[in-house]
Amino acid sequence: MFGWLGRFVVRRAWWVIAGWLVASVAIIGLSPSLSDITSAEQSDFLPSKYESIQAIKLSQTAFAKQATASALIVVKRTDGAALSDQDSAAVTTLADKLKARNIPATEGYVTGPQALAPDKSIQLINVGLEAPTPDDPALLDAIRSLRTALTEDLNGTGLSARVGGDVAAYVDNEDTFNGAFAIVGIATFVLIIVLILVIFRSPIAALLPIIVIGIVMQVTTSIIAVVGKALDWNVGQDLQTILLIVLYGIGTDYILFLLFRYRERLRAGDDKQTAMIVSVQRVGEVIASAAGAVVVAFLVLLLASLGFFGSLGPGLAIAVGVMLITSLTLIPALVSKLGRFVFWPSKAWQHPPKATVSRKLGALVGRRPALVAVVSGLVLVALAGGTLMYKADYDFSSGFPQDTESAQAQADLGRAFAAGAAQPTQVYLTTDNGEPVNMQTIELFRSAARDAPGVGQVGEVVLSNRQDIVRIDLLLNINPVSNEAIELVRGDLRDYLHAQAPGGTRAVVGGTTAVFADINTANNRDLSVILPVAAALIAIILALLLRSLVAPIYLVVAVLLNYAATLGATVYLFQGLQDKPGVTFQLPIILYLFVVAIGTDYNILMIARLREEAREGKEPREAAALGVEHGGPTVAAAGLILAGTFGVLMLAPISFLQQMGFAVAIGIVLSAFVMSFFFVPAFTALIGHAAWWPGHGDRAPAPHQPAGGAVELEKEPGPAVHP
C-alpha cells in the first residue's frame, strides 16, 4: 500500500502540491473562526450531575442576573491605622462617586458596615463586572478604569485602595502570560530551525517544517471550527496553544522520519525519486501507525466526563489526521521535487557517517542488553515512586508574582477577613415541595453552619426571586482554592451541610471551591478510565503493526511506566525540593497528551526499525545495535525539539507554566532517550525472537513464485518508476 502511495505521489508531485494549495485556500477561506466555539468557563465542561453545577443552575433560575465576574476594592488608611467612622463614611462616598462615573462593564458598587473588617483595618467595595462573555476585553478595561478613578478620587483623603479579584489578577499578569507564550512560539521555531540546521546543515530542510506546518495549522483550525459548529462542540481557550505544540511536535517528528530515511537512501545510491518512493514505503507504515496511536489516544478523551476533554480530544485527533495526510502526500511531493537540494548547501548527505555516538550506544545495547534494560528500567521505576506523594494544587494565584496590586489586595483581604472571603462557598437552601423557606428554618440552618468544619464566618441570608430558595455564603478559614479546602468541600463540609438541612429542605453546595472539588472528582474518574482504555487500544495498533502479541505488552507497559516516572520526577522537584503544596491539577492530563500519546511515536519508530533490521537477517542483538544506530538520531532529534520547546516554559515567572514545562520536557526526554533509546531495544534484544510471537515479524519476507516458475525476491522500487 505505502509503496503504491509513494509511487503515486512522486509521479504526480505537481498535481499533489497544486491540490494541497487549492484545498487549503478553500478550507481556510470558507470556514468559520475557531473562536466561535470557544468557551472560557471551567464549569461549562462539568456534567449537570455534579452538585456545583446544580448550584449554578439554582442561582441562574432563582436570583437576579448575576454579574459575569467581580472586583474587590480594598480600602485602608495610608498610615496603617484602623478605619474610623469618618473613614468608613468616606468609603461609602467613594463607592457613590465611582458609580456615578458610569465606568463601562461595571455595576453594583456595594459597601457598608458588613464590608468593614472586624479589626477595621480595611473596608471593601464589591464591584460587579458585566460582559457578554467571561473573556471579554471590556472586563480588563473596566479594571484599568477603576484604578485610574481611584487614584483621582482618593487624592488627599489619607486613604489608599487596591483592586483585586480574578479579573484584576489577569490584568496584572497579562504581560507575563503573553510574554511566556510568545517565548514558547519563538522558541518552537528557533529550536526547530537550529536543530535541523545542525542535523542536516541546510536552511531548506530547516524551513520546510516551519512553512508546511504553519499552513497545516490554519487548515486544521478551520476544519475543527467547521466540525465543531456542526456538532455543537464547546472547546476551551487552551486548544489553540495545544494545537500549536502538538502540530509542530508530531509534524516535525514525521518530517524528520522521512528526511532521515530519504538521506539514507540517497547515500545508498538511489536517485531522488526512487529514494522518496522507498522512504514512503519503509517509513509510511511507521508514520501511519504512530499517528493512529496518537489519534486513538486523543479520541479516548471522548470517554471523559469533563466536557473540555471530550471536545479537546476530537480536535487534536483531527489535527493529527491532517498532519498524517500531509506527511504522506505533500512532504514527499515537495522533497521529491527538491531532491538533493533539500540538503543544500551541505555535501554531508553524500557520505555515510563515521563512528557516531548512536553507533557506540547501539553497540552497548547489543552487547549488554540485560544490563541496559535493568538500569534504564530502574531509572523509570525510581522516578515513578514520586507519584505516591502526588498532591493536586488548584491555587493559581500563589504561582504568580506576589508584588502586583491584585496579589497585595488579596493579602490584605486574607489578613482582615476569613481566608475564603474572596471566594465564598455558596450554600443554597431549598424546599423539597416548592413551599416557601420560613425564617425559623433558615436561622436554624445558619446556626448549624457556624459549627461546620472549616467555616470561619457565615454571611447574611440572600433572598431570591423564588420563595423556596435562599442563599447563605460561608467563608472558609483556609485558602478556598487550596487542596485542603477542595478536599474539605468535597467531603466533610458537604456531608455536614447536607445532614444539617432541616426536614423538608435540602442544601446544595456551590461556589469556586465546590466547582474545583467536582473537577477533581471528574478528573480522577477520567484518568482511571482513559489510561487503561488508551493502553489497550495502542496495544492493538502495535499488534497489527508488528504482527505480534508479545512486543505490544512490554511496549505499553514501558509507556505507562514512563508516564508515572514523568509525574514522579515533577513531584520530586516541586513538592520535594521546592516544597510546593502540590503540582497543578491539570498536569496528569497534560502528561497524557504529550507523554503517553506523542511519546508512543518514538517507541513505534524504534521497534519498527528493530523489526526491519531483523527481517534483513540480523540476529536480535545485532538488530538492536543497528536499530539504535540508525533510528537513534531520528528519535534524539525529534525528542530534543519537542522537549526543548516545553523546557523554555521553565523561564516563565508563573509556577504552573514552570511545572508544565519541566514535566513535559522531562517526559519527552525519558520517552526518547531512556525508553526508546535504551529500554525498548535492550529488552527486545534480551527476549530475542520471542518478541515477535506469534507472527514472526522478524523473518525476512518469503519469496514468491512468478508465473514462469522462477523464484523472485521482493525488491525495492527502481528507476523504472520514473515518469
TrEMBL record:
Record's protein name: MMPL family transporter
Alphabetized Gene3D superfamilies for the sequence: Multidrug efflux transporter AcrB transmembrane domain (1.20.1640.10)
Keyword Cell membrane carried by entry: yes
Main location: membrane
SUPFAM superfamilies in the cross-refs: Multidrug efflux transporter AcrB transmembrane domain
Keywords: Cell membrane, Membrane, Transmembrane, Transmembrane helix
InterPro entries for the chain: MMPL_dom, Mycobact_MmpL, SSD
One Pfam family cited in the UniProt record for this chain: MMPL
N-terminal signal peptide: none
Residue ranges of domain SSD in the record: 555-685
Membrane topology (UniProt): Multi-pass membrane protein
Intracellular or extracellular location(s): Cell membrane
Disordered: annotated span: 698-723
Annotated TM spans: 12-30, 180-200, 207-227, 239-262, 283-309, 315-335, 369-390, 527-546, 553-574, 589-610, 631-656, 662-687
PANTHER family named among the record's database cross-references: MEMBRANE PROTEIN MJ1562-RELATED (PTHR33406), MEMBRANE PROTEIN YDGH-RELATED (PTHR33406:SF6)
Family listed: Belongs to the resistance-nodulation-cell division (RND) (TC 2.A.6) family. MmpL subfamily.
